[in-house]
Amino acid sequence: MAQLHVDIVSAEGAIHSGEAAMVFAPASMGEVGIAPRHAPLLTTLKPGTVRVKTPSGEVLPFFVGGGILEVQPNLVTVLADTALRAKDADEAAALKAKQDAEEKLAGAKTDMDLAKAQSELIEAAARLEFVKKIKGGSH
Q: Could you say which of 2, 31, 45, 50 has the lowest number of CB atoms within 10 Å?
């Protein structure tokens, strides 16, 4: 069975490196599925879940707060603004981040403050949804 190599990195460092049978990612225009020998692709990512299906069939979920997805025929690289492994997911921290973003949005004074607060809220909401899915919580 053909495989591809996947690297997920963020400013904090390497998050994941390994082989995959398939990769699913939240591209800015919609979710994409990447199989081995995929045509080269470069696209932006929106906050959401990157899922790596290993050759054994296990699915490894990772939260990304946006970034860039680069696809080569046998290599997928995710350059994430922020990234989080499922095992490191913390629902309380995700909920607090969402509440903090909502407070910033309510207190925004300029268009730039408003845009930044909206962006932070979108990322925080996606992170909270990711954590709830991973931990088996309700939506």
A: 2
Q: Any bridge partners for residue 69, and if so which?
A: 43, 78
DSSP single-letter state for residue 21: S
Give bridge partners of residue 65 from the DSSP assignment: 47
* Other residues' Cβ atoms within 10 Å of the Cβ of residue 30: 7
pTM of this prediction exceeds 0.90: no
**Top-level CATH class of 4-86?**
mainly beta
Listing DSSP states for 79-119 in one string gives EESSEEEGGG--HHHHHHHHHHHHHHHHT--SHHHHHHHHH
* Interval 100-126: pLDDT, tens: 778 877 887 888 888 887 888 788 777
Q: What angle do CA 9, 46, 18 make, to 5 degrees?
A: 30
Q: Where are the domains of the chain?
A: 4-86, 90-135
Report helix, strand or coil for 37.
coil
